[in-house]
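Many introductory courses stop at the sequence. We go one step further.
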Amino acid sequence: MRRGLVDRLGADVVDAATQPGGFSPGVAARLTLADGRRLFVKAVSSKTNPDSPGMHRREARIAAALPASVPAPRLLDSYDDGDWVALLFEGIDGTAPQTPWQQPELDRVLVAIGELSSTLTPAPIAVEPVSELMPSVFSGWHRLAASAESRQDDLRGVDPWAQRHLAELVALEAASPDAAAGTTLLHADLRADNILLTPSRVFFVDWPWASHGAAWVDLAFMLPSVAMQHGPKPWEIFDAHPLGRTAPAAAVTAVVAAAAGFMIRGSRLPPPPGLPTVRAFQRDQGVPALEWLRRRTGWS
């Protein structure tokens, strides 16, 4: 793979700096070439995680099709030998937002999310609806209830409020695919490690889950991770944001229910190959997501 990339680049790599963070089980590095060019490479093998190469292949198709108006790194080339898949992007001289979140950076990102939504409505490329691309995100409570009924999960550690209302949560979640429907191209995985800040711009990276849905869904999906990383509560941001203020209340509640169910149910599963920390990340997002859901439902 390294030889193949060097051949495509037409110059030797003189420095490779691994980038921490994120949940890809493969390579993520900033490259400096002998001719002075700076690039970013992400690469993964099916031996590390059987699903990740397919995600990289989809991201390559999405990144190649994104309009130049989208604040995302441009895809320069890709490599695929049937096992290893690598994507080469232009180098962005930026940094991820600080966590715990700092208010000035969070404000910049929230404005940029609104601008991104406007730029991507209607969706400029053909993709699946978010609920079709990510069915597990919209069926967490249903799957958790099924596991409890079959006694595969004793629900130990699940919040007592969620246990009391599990049947109602399943019914509420069932409305979430329609609630999330819309014509906006969504990133669908916004969080601090998928954002780069430069002095003048906010860039959104890692687009394998691009799909179409309601304009406010990206914001709703992101906010539990902001709260987890010591930012404001989800409702404090959502209710004040232009996207949140115009979102249908019942639809938002259904999607928040789906997000909470996905995180809580996911956190109880064994970790995927090569991703040992993702379940703790889901657990820690599930707490503020469930808190948001309790406020929205008003259920005691």
